[in-house]
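lol forgot to send this yesterday, sorry. struct tokens for the thing we talked abt
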């Protein structure tokens, strides 16, 4: 009898726990299958990869493809190069001047299936509009994914060539052989009296028959002059000064050497003169093109080329 009761209890225990074991096993198998099936067809998407066409600027001679600067009135060429995994829909090149709205330079719509596109556009900077120009390329594919790329070009105003000026030794004699020079009007003027004192930017400092090769200012014009045989200031010779920014950059870099008198002048010397009149500051770049200093003559002179 005892054995029979033990057999019944063992049978009941196995029956109840076998159901739990079978259920747990089936659940585990089902979960594993679900995970396997769910991961089988999933694609890994990198959220850091931006969708849309690949844009690049054409490089090489004749093209502008990086940030830079130009002189107003100059013309640049921009080349657009597009590649895409999806057929292209549209592309544009725009220009934005200062705070003005973007203006279209090129606008293309692709009616046939194409995944590459090359376009060029030229742009001339208005003579009167110095400042910042932003050129932007936009490209959209047929999945409506858009990308853009841009470069910034700064247009600088050119210096105005003022031509040739001549003024004489302070010991010169004879009518019209004036020993001072007005850079503003471009005229040689007398260095005597006080009537034109505020106009005397350059005045010869000779005290005898020999030319002193020295200048002074009588209206607080200040000078910085080259001291090397190349005649350069801040790495630029006279012909290399093209913009107002070139001149002010050189002045700021060398301002510790400024003076209202300069000596040791010779042919090829480059000078920056800073003139202030009625609170208006004007910078001039001067190159000495000739010095006439004949023995025994008091009518020696300087010839200059200058621009501002």
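and heres what i got for the seq, position by position
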């Amino acid at each position: 009898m005892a054995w029979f009761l033990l057999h019944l209890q063992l049978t009941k225990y196995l029956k109840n726990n076998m159901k739990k074991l079978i259920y747990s096993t089936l659940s585990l198998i089902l979960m594993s299958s679900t995970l396997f099936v769910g991961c089988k067809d999933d694609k890994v998407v990198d959220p850091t990869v931006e969708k849309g066409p690949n844009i690049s600027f054409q490089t090489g001679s004749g093209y502008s493809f990086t940030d830079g600067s130009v002189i107003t009135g100059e013309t640049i060429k921009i080349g657009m190069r597009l590649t895409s995994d999806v057929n292209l829909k549209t592309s544009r090149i725009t220009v934005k001047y200062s705070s003005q709205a973007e203006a279209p330079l090129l606008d293309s719509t692709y009616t046939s299936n194409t995944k590459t596109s090359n376009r060029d556009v030229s742009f001339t900077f208005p003579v009167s509009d110095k400042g910042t120009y932003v050129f932007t390329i936009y490209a959209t594919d047929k999945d409506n994914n858009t990308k853009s790329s841009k470069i910034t070009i700064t247009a600088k105003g050119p210096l105005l060539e003022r031509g040739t000026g001549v003024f004489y030794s302070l010991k010169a004699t004879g009518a019209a052989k004036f020993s001072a020079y007005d850079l503003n009007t471009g005229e040689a003027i007398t260095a005597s009296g006080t009537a034109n004192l505020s106009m005397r930017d350059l005045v010869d400092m000779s005290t005898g028959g020999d030319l002193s090769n020295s200048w002074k200012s009588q209206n607080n014009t200040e000078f910085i002059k080259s001291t090397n045989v190349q005649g350069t200031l801040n790495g630029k010779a006279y012909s290399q000064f093209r913009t107002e920014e070139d001149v002010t950059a050189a002045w700021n870099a060398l301002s510790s050497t400024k003076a209202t008198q300069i000596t040791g002048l010779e042919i090829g010397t480059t000078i920056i003169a800073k003139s202030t009149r009625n609170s208006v500051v004007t910078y001039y770049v001067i190159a000495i093109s000739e010095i006439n200093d004949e023995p025994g003559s008091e009518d020696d002179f300087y010839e200059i080329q200058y621009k501002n």
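Residues 2-40 form the longest helix (39 residues). anyway ping me if u want another try
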